[in-house]
Amino acid sequence: MSSLIFLSILVFAVPLIQHVTCDPVKDYLLPIAERLRKMGEKAYKEEERQRTHPDDADEGTVAEDNARLVRDVYAFFPILMKYTDLHRAKWLKTPTWESDGVYENVAVIFKIWSLSQHFKREELNYQAQFEEDLAMVGGGEMKTGKAAIAERKKKRREGQAKKDKHANSIVIACLKRLLPVGLNVFGGRELDIVQQCKEKFLARENEEKIREFIRELLEIPVQVCF
């Protein structure tokens, strides 16, 4: 049922965003982003407590908190992504603390998602349910039978199944939309550091070495020429 709500948002709510004449960032988008961030922080805190103190934590509560978080993320992020596409140029030209705040909250949600096994698992479950509901209402086709099984086995042999399973995350997609807004606060030196780090991550260098690389660069004083 929740994935059908997501489908309704995609079909009916998202197209209406282009007709919004007021600026809803301060009164609506930012408060919702903050609420989702707090939900994510609470869910991850409980997940960590379950990991470190399994006897004191309720696994059902952890799963329920993350399932609710995923539902709310999938209700809000499509609208936020559409609004960002329409107004990103304006935000880049005239930055505001509200638009920066939206980015910061989404970035925190992404960080939680990247660390949380439950968050990612519940999102995969949600995506699977959405595909089933989409097929049920005639919006797509479910691959079943021997052909689908053979295809999954082939992907598994090629090592693609694990690699691609989170590629369609809406958390990643939303952060990508907002990333220019977040990078807009950086100067030339910071952007150069970001680019160098990006290249190191793409080269799959050790993350701790990259962190040390960043610390060393940030400790170098900026030379001012007179």
Number of domains: 2
**Gyration radius from CA atoms, angstroms:** 20 Å
- Say how many strands there are: 0
- Overall mean pLDDT score? 81
The major pleated sheet works out as: none
Summarize the structure.
The chain is an all-alpha fold and 226 residues long. The chain has helices spanning 2-13, 25-52, 59-93, 97-115, 117-136, 145-157, 160-164, 170-183, 188-202, 207-219.
Characterization of the model:
- The structure is a single chain.
- By secondary structure, the protein is mainly alpha-helical.
- The protein folds into 2 domains: 184 residues, no CATH class; 40 residues.
- The chain is built from 10 helices and no strands.
- Helix 1 crosses helix 5, helix 2 packs antiparallel against helix 3 and helix 9 packs antiparallel against helix 10.
Task: Give a quick set of tags describing it.
single chain; mainly alpha; 0% strand; 226 residues; 2 domains
